[in-house]
Amino acid sequence: MTHKDYEGLVTPRCFDPGAWGPAAEPVSSGGRGGAWFVESGSLSAVLRKYLRGGLVARVCMSAYLYLGENRVRPFSEFRLLSSLHARGFPVPKPIAAGYQRAAFAWYHGAILVERLNGTVPLAGCIGHLSSGQWSVLGKTLRQFHDAGVFHADLNCFNILVSEDDFYLIDFDKGVIRQDARPDARWKSANLSRLHRSLQRLNWPRGAGDLASRWAELELGYQGRA
Description:
Phosphorylase Kinase, domain 1; Transferase(Phosphotransferase), domain 1; 6-stranded antiparallel beta sheet; 3-stranded antiparallel beta sheet; 5 helices; 27% helix; 3-deoxy-D-manno-octulosonic acid kinase; kinase; kinase activity; cell membrane
């Protein structure tokens, strides 16, 4: 599955980091590994393989049960990103998604998305964000939630920062929910997940405290900043 803007530029070898040689640079921050920055004359992208987490990863790290092409995880994420990007949401533009059947009823998958150059993960810049920027982040998250967009792993590594702009990445298992009411329980659970990831960081001197920064984020989320 390839975005129309990249038709003819993507081949199956593009999903193999080894095929990129020195042009593939492992992404070191966040996640479970399995992601690379890849560069060529026509592409500046992030290649991400689908890897399991938790206890199941000890047995089967990268294979998923095949239930039909329409349900493979790379294609689901590609479709969601395509829709969000076309609607103007701050997400990376998808380039291509692919999968390979494995033994029995399993498959391995990968996705290519455009690299958001000039951005850094939220986890790496909390010491440099003003209170106003935290409010902007809250407003950005509210825009996703108002549209029913559920990010299954909203954490401080899946939010990228570029000056006053914020982007959400890694929409594996993400969906658009029908229940988009302001008091929908999934929204508060989504924010709580982000809060827990921020709690696990070592906040640098001068970054302020999480309580005050989170209060600013909530003001932006509520439209009161």
